[in-house]
Amino acid sequence: MFASPVAQSTKTRRRRLILLLAVCSLGPTLPAQPAPPEDRVHALLSRMTLEEKIGQLVQYSSRSDMTGPASSAALAPLIRAGGVGSLLNIIGAAETRKWQRLAVESSRFHLPLLFGLDVVHGYRTIFPIPLATAASWDLARIEAAERIAAAEAAAAGINWTFAPMVDIARDPRWGRISEGAGEDPFLGSAVARARVIGFQGDGRFATPESILACAKHFAAYGAVQAGRDYFTTDVTERTLREVYLPPFRAAVEAGVGTIMAAFNDLDGTPCTANAFLLDRVLRREWGFRGFVVSDWAAIEELRAHGTAADLRDAARQAVVAGLDMDMESEAYGPHLAELVRSGAVPEARIEAAAGAILVAKFRLGLVDDPYRYCDEAREKTAWLRPESLAAARDLARRSCVLLKNNGALPMKRDGITVALVGPLADSPQQQLGAWSGQSHREDTVTIRSALAEFFPGTRLRYAPGCTVRGSDTSGFKAARDAAAGADVIVAALGEEADQSGEATSRTSLDLSGPQLALLRELRATGKPVILLLLTGRPLTIEPAEPLADAILLAWHPGTMGGPAIADVLTGAYNPSGHLPVTWPRNVGQIPIFYAHKNSGRPAPHVGEPEDRYYSHYIDAPNTPLYSFGFGLSYTTFAFEGVRLNSPVLRADGAPLVVTVRVSNTGSRSGETVVQLYVRDRVGSVTRPVRELKGFAKIALNVGESREIEFKLTPNDLAFWRADMTFGPEPGQFDLFIGGDSTATLSTSFTFETTPRN
Ligand code: BGC
Question: How far is ligand 1, taken at its centre, from the CA of residue 501, in Å?
Answer without folding.
Answer: 10
